[in-house]
């Protein structure tokens, strides 16, 4: 018997930009396929005609490409309605899809009566008891039916890739509505039809879909399609415990990208939080794929901490060679017409960066002076004391002649220490503040040759 090609899918609704939680879904699937030599399908679930937008499809695909995910196939459900119509007719003919006429208010009143009687608030299948004459009378009133799938009402079991043995009792569920009154489809039927048609072998998604899986397995079986393997990973929240949503724009992939984060820092943290794996910033999806095991994903909600992302991002940035960032630095205006070697500049500042764009701030400090960068809270900003002013004037008088290299800082400060008796913080901090405007930053032995004699002299009294 031929082996089944591993085929997975990521199925976003193009109603907003994807956030870190959506990226987690896409990455789990893409990495699973990458690890097993499979295929990755990007399917836009755009059956919500009013809210779905073509520009958001392009934006989502662009965000995925930034993360390193390039689908083997990309398609939209809005182009596949004929397939869903055919499947719906088959289910109707088999007695599995039936017309219902209740209004939302009628259903709510019925639900309350059931609760008052101590009964589960599930749909009572009253529509199955309607006669042809009653159907005709309801239609004559102008009512248009919605269509429900008749569940078997049994225990549906599967071995989950994350959660192990799972059972959903569909007898405890309402028959799900698959087609709205206006004839449009809800998510459930198109998803199953597409999974069958596209040969999806594994459905990897969030744990909020566990109950849906019991329903969908019954629909797979009713349509005679192969049932894929399922895996339901834990969801992620903010540090405060708030669930992620598209309204949290600060955690959208687009905003993280615009803020200068590295795609592999975002990708690594997205899939490694809430698992037994060590959180590490891997340099490629291929490398990361070898460290993502669905069986080692926790059952507890994972919390996304932006500070953790900063830490991972900084590790990646600190390891980036100049050649890897040269184009990005040029886009930031580095080197411009300054005459400063951009490679030497990058070597000097990268150990102090969290993101690559932060290099632009240090470039302005080197080229234009500390006054161009307002001090942060708790940093330099107060006028120097008279003693420091006198010290800085003496430092200016003792500036070594050019050419300068990485030994210049040590030579200069040793001479100043011998001449003034200052040492430690009293020696170095006034110089750093005068030259950069802040209390911390790159090693001055590397920064000083970039600033040069002329600029250094101009920054000292």
TrEMBL record:
Location of the motif 'KMSKS' region: 243-247
Aminoacyl-tRNA synthetase class I anticodon-binding domain residues: 347-460
Domain of life: Bacteria
Any single GO CC term annotated in Swiss-Prot or TrEMBL for this entry: cytoplasm
PROSITE patterns: AA_TRNA_LIGASE_I
UniProt-annotated binding residues for ATP: 246
Motif ('HIGH' region) on chain: 12-22
EC number(s) on file: 6.1.1.17
Gene3D superfamilies (UniProt xref): 1.10.10.350, HUPs (3.40.50.620)
GO MF annotations in UniProt: ATP binding; glutamate-tRNA ligase activity; tRNA binding
A GO BP entry: glutamyl-tRNA aminoacylation
Subunit structure: Monomer.
Record's function text: Catalyzes the attachment of glutamate to tRNA(Glu) in a two-step reaction: glutamate is first activated by ATP to form Glu-AMP and then transferred to the acceptor end of tRNA(Glu).
Name under which the protein is recorded: Glutamate--tRNA ligase
Gene source species: Prosthecodimorpha hirschii
Lineage of the organism: Bacteria, Pseudomonadati, Pseudomonadota, Alphaproteobacteria, Hyphomicrobiales
């Amino acid at each position: 018997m031929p082996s089944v090609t591993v085929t997975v899918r990521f199925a976003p609704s193009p109603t907003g930009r994807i956030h870190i939680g959506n990226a987690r879904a896409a990455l789990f699937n893409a990495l699973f396929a990458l690890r097993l030599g499979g295929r990755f399908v990007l399917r836009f679930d755009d059956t919500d005609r009013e809210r779905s937008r073509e520009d958001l499809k392009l934006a989502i695909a662009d965000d995925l490409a930034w993360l390193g995910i390039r689908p083997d196939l990309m398609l939209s459900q809005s182009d596949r309605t004929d397939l869903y119509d055919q499947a719906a007719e088959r289910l109707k003919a088999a007695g599995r899809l039936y017309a219902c006429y209740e209004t939302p208010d009628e259903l709510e009143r019925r639900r309350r009566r059931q609760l008052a009687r101590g009964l589960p608030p599930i749909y009572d299948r009253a529509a199955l008891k309607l006669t042809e004459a009653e159907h005709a009378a309801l239609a004559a009133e102008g009512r248009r039916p919605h269509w429900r799938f008749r569940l078997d009402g049994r225990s549906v079991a599967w071995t989950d890739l994350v959660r192990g043995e799972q059972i959903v009792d569909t007898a405890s569920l309402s028959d799900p509505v698959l087609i709205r009154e206006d004839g449009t489809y809800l998510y459930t039927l198109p998803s199953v039809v597409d999974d069958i048609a596209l040969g999806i072998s594994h459905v990897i998604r969030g744990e909020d879909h566990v109950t849906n899986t019991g329903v969908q397995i019954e629909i797979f079986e009713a349509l005679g399609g192969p049932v894929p393997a399922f895996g339901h990973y834990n969801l992620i929240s903010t540090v405060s415990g708030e669930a992620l949503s598209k309204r949290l724009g600060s955690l959208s992939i687009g905003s993280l990208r615009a803020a200068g984060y590295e795609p592999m820092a975002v990708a690594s943290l997205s899939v490694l939080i809430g698992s037994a794996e060590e959180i590490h910033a891997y340099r490629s999806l291929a490398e990361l794929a070898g460290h993502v095991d669905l069986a080692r994903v926790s059952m507890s909600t994972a919390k996304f901490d932006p500070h953790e992302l900063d830490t991972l991002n900084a590790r990646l940035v600190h390891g980036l060679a100049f050649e890897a960032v040269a184009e990005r630095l040029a886009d930031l205006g580095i080197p411009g017409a300054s005459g400063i070697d951009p490679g030497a500049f990058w070597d000097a500042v990268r150990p102090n960066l969290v993101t690559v764009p932060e290099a632009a701030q240090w470039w302005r400090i080197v080229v234009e002076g500390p006054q161009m960068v307002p001090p942060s809270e708790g940093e330099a900003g107060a006028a120097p004391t008279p003693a420091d002013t006198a010290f800085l004037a003496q430092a200016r008088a003792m500036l070594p002649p050019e050419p300068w290299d990485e030994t210049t800082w040590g030579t200069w400060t040793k001479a100043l220490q011998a001449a003034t008796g200052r040492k430690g913080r009293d020696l170095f901090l006034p110089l750093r503040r005068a030259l950069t405007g802040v209390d911390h930053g790159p090693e001055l032995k590397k920064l000083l040759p970039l600033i040069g004699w002329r600029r250094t002299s101009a920054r000292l009294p």
